[in-house]
Amino acid sequence: MPRNRVVLGLQWGDEGKGKVIDLLACEADLVVRCQGGANAGHTVVVGGKKTVLHLLPSGVLNENARCVIGHGVVLDPVALCHELDDLLAGGSDVAKRLVVADRAHLVLPSHPHLDRAQEAAKGASKVGTTLRGIGPCYTDKAARIGIRAGELCDLKACEAKVREHIAKSNVIAKALGAEPLDVETAMAAWLPSARRIAPLVTDSISILHEAMGAGRSFLFEGAQGAQLDLDVGNYPYVTSSNTGIGGILTGSGLSHKQLGQVIGVVKAYSTRVGSGPFATELNDARGEALRQRGREFGSTTGRPRRCGWLDLVIVGYACRLNGIDAIALTKLDILDGERELPMCVGYRLDGKVLDGPPARIEDLARVEPVYETLPGWTTPSTGARTFEALPKQAQDYVRFIEKRIGVPVKWIGTGAGRDEIIVR
Ligand code: IMP
Questions:
Q1: Residue from 42, 71, 113, 165 carrying the catalytic annotation
Q2: Ligand 1 pocket test: which of 54, 115, 224, 330 has the largest number of ligand atoms within 8 Å of its C-beta?
Q3: C-beta separation of 265 from 227 below 8 A
Q4: Across the strands, what pairs with 106?
Q5: Cβ(180)–Cβ(170) under 8 Å?
Q6: Whose C-alpha lies nearest to ligand 1, atom 20?
Q7: What is the pLDDT of residues 38-91, one digit of tens each?
Q8: What is the pLDDT of residues 101-138, one digit of tens each?
Q9: Strand pairing partners for 46?
Q10: Are 392 and 374 in contact (CB under 8 A)?
Q11: Residues with Cβ < 8 Å from 189, sequence gap 6 or more?
């Protein structure tokens, strides 16, 4: 059993990482988020109450685990307080075991405001962001004008900086055609949460290194997915952080030697929210059927997700780039009843077949998927607890993926329930 594990999404996010994390978190002493922010969304049930986690690691459900929000995360104090309150209402006082990195950048009231203004100004070419201020916050970080959580130790000075930030951002918002943000209203909503988070902020790097030295076990949780990576995803239709193994390293402060097993989560078909090319998208009744059966509606924004066949070009690419040791295949049961199952094994572009996505978004939008079609299955896979209990065609579907990608499928999700998962 590996002591440390990393869980990464290998498609466009929403692969069902939460379920895999839920299974693995019970073996972890620390659960760590390293990148992204409140754009992520994972629905959990605590004390019979449904809560959507955005910022907290999903492994928070393990009551014995220490939760760490690493410095690569962009932290929205208001969103974090909502989550803490929701979990508290379900009987779980997470704040007692939560560490917030002092180097994490704060999402300020001006960031979601600018996110909305930028998206509106882009019109038809908008990214389709979650409007959580993620891009503007990372922009400020790279421009070296951001404010970090460590600043909260001097709340008065921090407040002055936030006010100044809002005033400057209002100039940009105005240039983009948006109304300015009212500073007093914004501060009244932001400050109480910032004040509440301040005592949780600390030197997370020292804590992580000490725990590693003491032999504690770690679960690192990636957010979003490989195709949304800022560098190797479908730029510009991406998020503003590195969603792969690089983001885990730079966002935690640990070394590559300490990360352990790298698990890639792959949904048995494809989904995407927001704009951008999607080679295997089904704009027909079959896509709609997948959406309904798979309940494919965003947990952060409620938007219907675009659905399509499994794309092994992008999965293989993500495995190569991230050194994936094992795949967790989720939602296999959603394919129950499909007559046949095309899987994309290549992209045809200008007469050539590519085994990875081209860099230019215009080229990616032109690729033609090359399909291999496998027979579907009529008997349900739902609830199967062993590989052998799956319909033969479902076993063949899994084996095809393993053979094509060269990575073993170690977990298979066969239902929504916590224990509806095959461990091989
Ligand atoms: P942002 O991260 O809010 O800036 O959004 C950029 C793109 O990433 C948009 O297409 C979003 O729909 C997508 N995105 C961001 N977070 C997630 C997620 O957790 N799941 C799926 N898509 C996401």
A1: 42
A2: 224
A3: no
A4: 75
A5: yes
A6: 13
A7: 999 887 766 676 778 999 998 898 899 999 999 999 999 999 999 999 999 888
A8: 999 999 999 999 999 999 999 999 999 999 999 999 99
A9: 49
A10: no
A11: 78, 109
Backbone φ, ψ for residue 205 (5° rounding): -60, -45
- Report the alpha-carbon distance of residue 412 to residue 424 in Å, rounded: 8
Query: Residues 193, 200: contact at Cβ < 8 Å?
Result: no
**Residue 245, strand partner residues:** none
H/E segment holding residue 412: strand 409-413
**C-alpha span between 103 and 93 (Å, rounded):** 24
Cross-strand partners of 348: 353, 368
How far is the C-alpha of 181 from the C-alpha of 247, rounded, in Å? Answer: 32
**Ramachandran category for residue 297: left, alpha or beta (phi over 0 → left; psi -120 to 50 → alpha):** beta
Tokens 């499909």, located at residue: 338
- Name residue 68's beta-bridge partners: 32, 99
Alpha carbon of 40 to ligand 1 centroid (Å): 7
| Block residue for tokens 């760590």 | 32
What count of other Cβ atoms lies within 10 Å of the Cβ of residue 154?
Answer: 12
Backbone CA torsion sign across 286, 228, 302, 266: positive
pLDDT digits (tens, 9 = 90+) for 304-331: 999 999 999 999 999 999 999 999 999 9
- Joined together, the tokens standing for residue 66 give 């220490």
Clarify whether 42 is annotated catalytic. Answer: yes
Greatest extent of the chain over all pairs of C-alpha atoms, in Å: 65
Mean per-residue pLDDT, 337-343: 97
Ligand 1 centroid–CA 238 distance in Å is 7
Which residues, in sequence order, are CB contacts of 379 under 8 Å at separation 6+? 391
How many angstroms separate the alpha carbon of residue 304 from the centre of ligand 1? 13
Pure H helices in 65-145:
77-89, 110-122, 134-142
- The H or E element that residue 329 is part of is strand 326-330
**Whole-number mean pLDDT of the chain?**
95
Tokens 């970080």 found at: 141
Residue of 116, 118, 137, 239 with the most ligand 1 atoms within 8 Å of its CB, for mutation? 239
Strand-strand pairing, 4-9 and 261-267: parallel
| DSSP, residue by residue, 351-402 | TEEESS--SSHHHHTT-EEEEEEEE--SS--TT--SGGGS-HHHHHHHHHHH
Classified as helix, coil or strand, 297 is strand
